[in-house]
Design brief:
mainly beta; Immunoglobulin-like; 5-stranded antiparallel β-sheet; 8 domains; transmembrane; Low-density Lipoprotein Receptor
Length: 750
Amino acid sequence: EVACDADSFRCVHSSGCISNKLICNGKDDCGDGSDEWGCKPANATVIPLTCTPFQFMCATGECIGIDKLCDKNDDCPLGDDEKKCNDTDYAFKAHNLLVSRDSINLHGFKVQWEPPAGQSHLDFQYLPSYREATSSEWKNMTWIKTTSFVFNNLTSGTDYIVTVYTRLTNHSEVAPPTEFLTITTEWEAPDPPTNISVSIYHAKHVLVKWTPPTKLNGINSYRIYFSPPNPPHYEIVKEMKTSHAINFDFSPGVNYTFWMTSFNRNLESKKSEPFVIDFAKDSVLSPVTNLSVVSATDSQVTIAWNHSVHRGSGYSVIYRPSYITETFSETQNTTENRITVKGLAPGAKYIFRVLPYNGQFKGPDEKIEVTTKGTPLPAVPVLDKRESDVNSITLFWDAPKYTSPVQWTYGVYMFAPTSNDYERKGITTDTNFTLIGLTPCTIYVFQIRVIKPFGIGPAGSGYAETKFDRKAAPRYLGLTFDPPDHMVISFEASCLQVASDIGYRVRIEDMVKQKTDYVGLAPRTDSKISFRRDIHYGGKYGVQVQTDADHSELSEKVVFLAPSLPIVPQIKATREKNGSIYVSWDEVKWPGELKDDKFLYTVLLSNEKDMSSATAYNTSKPSFFLHTPPSSWSNVYVTVNVVDEHGYSGPLSNIYALGSDESYASVVLSQTSLVGVAVGVAVIFILLISTLIIFVIRHRRLQRSFLSFANSHYDTRSGAATFSTGEELDEEEESPMIRGFSDDEPLVIA
């Protein structure tokens, strides 16, 4: 491979170098397309990556971590990472920094490392240091000689970044760290919310309020419980808010007990203090008594009752003939204890329900059945004649005969599967009605009944079917995964019985590459159609289908998500005071189905947590270093994903927040360390003063001894030189003994 300079980009496959200016220019300048990988979205700026200060560039252009220098292994193809180890600055670095997995607990963990390689004859000291991943403040421990350290008193469920400094014992120069670990302490259950309160808004609506715990400890949801019922009802609140509305069929006069818990991951806190509410005790209503029929004619009924003990503000009277459902009941309100209901059908059995109410609260009901007098209304005779089209049906019927000629008003009803009941579609005085806006090739059930002038009568019913429409969109479009790299597209014709051959056109949109393909299917009478289509990992596809008829209708779009490309694991990021950013991660496990596809890593940096308008940087191998991120950013968020040579991207890794003002991972002496240094300096100063005093005293002694020596005299009578033998000197002085000598011996005085 060819080594490229800092202003060039090394192509992944062609092994050539191109200028950084040619990256993401829409042209394949490398010949293998790697200079255009991951260049979308359009608002992203793509910058190639050279070796970082935490890496060493081999002569062949490969980047290796500086922790691999001088480790007695040839990590570079030419072995140049081991050639200058005598001169390297990395000889005193601790290496193989790791955490003991069994030691990780709620508030601490143990890390260990190996001493500098090949330096066993030297005495080293180590300084463990750590910071929270979201903080810029490094905290240094104490210098130790062991190769392990236990961190304690940490916060549970928190990411920490750990490193180790090295120095020679009794030396001030500290070797910078080259290895960092990101370690997460175990999670513990959070504290519950406090100050729970409940406010009643109406009969089926309350608002619960609370105060979050002081220490959030990774809380991601709350759970609100209340009882009765038993077991308690609960609702989950996933948003980090301080209030939540609950809709429930509460009963007035019942004591409800509310309490809450907090969740982080799968851990639930203890119960909060309960809050008890006597639900709307002033709205407790009792049923009426002695409900009875006062009178009944062919068109009206009068009923009466005794006032309830807790009567509320009035009474609701709900009534209907027995041959229609509760959906079409009618209601009248009164404040009296009797009511006359008019406009009823003759000869019909009516069901009356009477209940007290007070605002939104309703009490229990009492029921009574009453049959009106007179001849029952006739059912409408529906004819077999139909006029149907692809989207409409025209119904016909005869006017029913009654005791006298009547100008009837009719109601037309159609069954709605969604509500499992009939819905009124229209009112007419004619003996025909057209239902419109229907689905082609569908069977509809309908009813027709008289509704005026003598009340609502029994229904005549029937069914009708719309015609097949060649322009109608096919139904039940479905997309399923067919391993390893296909999806099955299936759908049904708009009608179960297709009268003649019809073709289809399938629209397949690649929503990642913004490319659309069309697949034509030959004409057929099959009502169920399916076929396979190849897909790509990381792809997102939108599929629609229509017939081959002119101006045919497209079906609703169905979206299919292909299996995702692997997510980048173990992302770690640090930001220094000068703004430089270092990001590392583990290699992804590339799917075997894509063994022939090449890929790049894309590092995304953004000022926004949602990674909008992110700046993208491509690299072919893990680790990334950026000297100068945009200075205008107040915060920096980092994430990494993979991009293959076809332009498909993997999911973003966890978003890493670097904050806004990171400081150097520098050695800072603590207060304890400063005290130790001060004591050491004081001891050294005392020793120096003592040495000086001893030197002065000894100098004076030597001076006195020399004077004694110099004052010696020459005895002319004896013809010999005579000197003191030392008896005149103090006994405690350590002067040397000088004995006399004869004239024939030379005298030398220094």
